């Protein structure tokens, strides 16, 4: 068993500073657009067991964002985002007291894996209903996931995104997103956040993913092999990342309407496509909401493979949530797969990482595998990685 080494940075780190810390200069990767793997053995090599110590660099700035009505924070509050000092911004409709916040990510890299060549990537998105928690999650579960993947050969990140709650007042969004949910009464997925909450969280998550690809050489990443995972609200974001249009969240706002838009621009040419996603207690609310707002179907022939995990006692995400996403995937694409995995006896908050998978697509597997290990095995196969 390896001891994981951690580099904790309490201050915000610039990209140039991270270059000195990571020190993984490799040749620049190719196009930002993804190319599907050619065979089951053409991807980078990873390991089924822990093989590497993990370097963790916390607090890397990837962008800025606007929150709309910040209030004072209370000690120990896991739903608080503190504005940066600076001049006051002009009020906007629905955004009475706009202020800028720092958006940061934590980077997990496998020490000593440079000789294997560029590494696959894993993007983890935290839970909290788009209302609470930071990049590590409710109980540090995103930190656990990133360590698990990085210790086996991945480069992993988890990020801060803007929260929508009484302290932040929500994030600055396009006018047509400041509405109630457009989903019909027939939509039965359970968790159903307002479009405004979705916008801020997903815009920021995609910004972190673009930062990762934009710094591929620095972090020793193979741009073509990036997967995603998330729990609860982060799982809903992951469903979206597997079904998205790559240009979503790039043109709906601009420098004229978002004073932090320029912080996204250095990496806007980078893709946010993923090869596969693991969904820990999620539904399709993000993709379904965006589809309802603009009338463009995001479940298409370009969708990535997806594994949806649910505990039998989950009262937040419904069984319909899983089967509906699988139905939409199966009706839209033949090259990707959407598998449904069930963990008996666990609820929404105990599925990950404690649950054990015993069923696939409603049929017993004859085994009981911890969700984390099962997810790693599934996504490495879906991404066509070489596993040793």
Contiguous helical run count: 8
Low-confidence stretches: 1-40
Strand arrangement in the largest pleated sheet: 2-3-5-4-6-7-8-9-10-11
Helix and strand content put the structural class at: alpha/beta
Topology:
Layout (H helix, E strand, L loop, with lengths): L14 H8 L22 E2 L7 E14 L31 E12 L8 E7 L15 H10 L4 E5 L35 H20 L1 H4 L1 E11 L1 H11 L32 E5 L4 H10 L10 E7 L7 H14 L5 E6 L12 E5 L2 E8 H12 L3 E2 L1
Parallel strand pairs: 1-12, 4-5, 4-6, 6-7, 7-8, 8-9
Antiparallel strand pairs: 2-3, 3-5, 9-10, 10-11
Put the structure in a nutshell.
Helices cover about 25% and strands about 20% of the residues.
Describe what this molecule looks like in 3D.
The chain is of the alpha/beta class and 388 residues long. The protein has eight helices and twelve strands. The chain has helices at 15-22, 141-150, 195-214, 216-219, 233-243, 285-294, 319-332, 371-382, and strands spanning 45-46, 54-67, 99-110, 119-125, 155-159, 221-231, 276-280, 305-311, 338-343, 356-360, 363-370, 386-387. Strands 2-3-5-4-6-7-8-9-10-11 form a ten-stranded mixed beta sheet, with helices on both faces. Helix 6 (285-294) links the parallel strand 7 and strand 8. Residues 1-40 have low confidence and may be disordered.
